[in-house]
Specification:
The protein is α/β, with parallel strands linked by helices and about 475 residues long. It contains 15 helices and 18 strands. The longest helix has 23 residues. The chain is elongated, with a radius of gyration of 25 Å. Bound molecules: zinc ion (ZN).
């Protein structure tokens, strides 16, 4: 009892001491505790990894337009609703085509007879039976390359390393259309990956590639090139894919935590739940999906809200041509002035370094201060490297401040779009730290006085040409099945 009286006296003293202290000091102490609780929950609960396991090993691969993609959206809705997040719903958008992988076989038929390891790129057609043709090695095709002689209707072997003018996928998509129009039967691209791993990403093929396109193991491609140095090489190919151009529907999934002071202003956290079909998409982008879902659950369960609304958006269709986020930006055009920041996670569950700003140097001073709560997680770095290959892209085009999580690459590139993108590559603790970073950034951005202005049309044009992102944006907007363009 005596101890209780002393404790009561002490608490009165400390309360009055607090009330004498300046209100700004009290404001400083409060956020620190919230950030500590967020990071503690992310590390202790392991909720992101647990969700990632059910996403990847109950549903599995989540190809855009597939039943599994629909099941993944349903699982997100169910999980977000169960966690008590607000305004949980799906937003539909039209899909111009769906694609199913069949089989892909390749053989050298002259001067020897040997099988080759290949897989079809996504959204590429089949060969309509077995075809046989000579191989032409076009070497490295860049933005300025001339086409090889295609008069004998060959199978073309070519690399697309990208150059200062445009990324390789832009060159590849355009070259494939020109090669097909000029008589090529198929395009084979040597994989960059080690250990005969293949890369079946097809950014830029949607809604339909102009001819069969295959990834071939690096080792097999080197063999074909060695044989070509000695004379002619003929290949046989048989690819059976299904491309269905009946209009269909895909869905993005949305959930919110309403803001306390500025509920109409939004900080958007995003990731994509679709994946390639040959693995379970654990890193790309199951990890981002799980991290932002868990970030939302943590904030909700700790009853921590930002001044602005924190909105989680789970995009689909990313692997084809960032379809889900493109549709989202189009559908929310009237609202974009109220989206004060976007933060996307889609580089895999690597050790976090900070955020990429994609050329928005004007945001740096404010973000250095706003993202101070990430100091303890050593994730306050800012990079200006710009890319057009994640769901931030059309927000950047629209002038909305858009960040992407910047992580140490680790072995991400090896397993990305390969059969090895599975959950055994995910480090639980690193995924938990990424989750803490995304939740911390969401709250810090949602509480900021100002993040940065939406760019004017002139400023957007300047940003896109300065960063070269205009080339990628234009390439994805080209009519892909035509043979037009350069
Ligand atoms: Zn991705």
């Amino acid at each position: 009892m005596r101890q209780n009286i002393i404790a009561a006296v002490l608490s009165v003293v400390s309360l009055s001491a607090l009330s004498i202290a300046s209100s700004s000091a009290a404001r400083v102490a409060q956020p620190d505790q919230r950030y500590e609780r967020i990071a503690g929950a992310a590390l202790q609960r392991g909720g992101a990894y647990e969700f990632l396991q059910s996403l990847t090993e109950t549903i599995g691969p989540r190809l855009t337009g597939s039943e599994q993609s629909r099941a993944a959206a349903d699982l997100l809705v169910k999980t977000l609703s169960a966690a008590g997040l607000e305004n949980v719903h799906v937003e539909e958008y039209p899909l111009r085509s769906r694609w199913r992988r069949g089989t892909a076989q390749a053989r050298i038929v002259a001067p020897t007879s040997l099988p080759l390891l290949v897989q079809s790129f996504g959204w590429a057609p089949g060969t309509d039976g077995s075809i046989e043709a000579p191989v032409v090695d076009a070497g490295s095709i860049t933005s300025a390359s001339a086409l090889p002689d295609l008069s004998n209707h060959p199978i073309v072997l070519a690399d697309f390393p990208g150059d200062r003018t445009e990324p390789g996928y832009v060159t590849r998509g355009r070259a494939a259309r020109r090669l097909a129009a000029a008589g090529a039967r198929a395009l084979i691209v040597p994989s960059d990956k080690p250990d005969r791993l293949l890369d079946i990403g097809c950014f830029g093929n949607y809604p339909a590639a102009a001819m069969p396109m295959l990834s071939m193991a690096k080792e097999d491609s080197l063999m074909v090139r060695r044989l070509l140095e000695q004379g002619g090489v003929r290949l046989s190919l048989e690819v059976t894919n299904t491309l269905d151009t009946t209009p269909a529907i895909e869905r993005n999934v949305v959930a919110e935590l309403k803001g306390t002071a500025l509920p109409d202003r939004v900080v958007l956290l995003g990731a994509h739940f679709d994946s390639w079909d040959t693995a379970t998409g654990a890193n790309d982008d199951g990890s981002g999906t799980a991290a932002i879902l868990e970030a939302g659950r943590i904030l909700k369960s700790l009853d921590i809200r930002g001044r602005r609304t924190i909105r989680l958006v789970f995009f689909s269709g990313e692997e084809q041509a960032i379809l889900g986020s493109h549709a989202y930006v189009d559908a929310h055009g009237a609202e974009l002035d109220r989206i004060d920041a976007v933060a996307i996670m889609d580089e895999g569950a690597g050790v976090p370094k900070g955020f990429r700003l994609h050329g928005r140097t004007d945001l740096e001073p404010a973000l250095r201060a706003i993202l101070q709560p990430l100091a303890g997680l050593d994730a306050r770095g800012l990079s200006q490297e710009a890319s057009f290959d994640q769901d931030h892209s059309y927000f950047v085009v629209a002038g909305v401040p858009a960040l992407t999580l910047w992580v140490e690459p680790g072995a991400y590139e090896t397993h990305h779009h390969a059969i090895t993108d599975t959950i055994d590559k995910i480090d639980r603790r690193t995924l938990a730290v990424d989750t803490a970073v995304m939740a911390t950034a969401a709250l810090a951005l949602a509480d900021a006085d100002t993040v940065g202005a939406r760019l004017t049309a002139a400023q957007r044009a300047d940003l896109l040409s300065r960063t070269g992102l205009d080339k990628s944006a234009a390439a994805l907007a080209e009519p892909l099945t035509s043979s037009g363009g350069r």
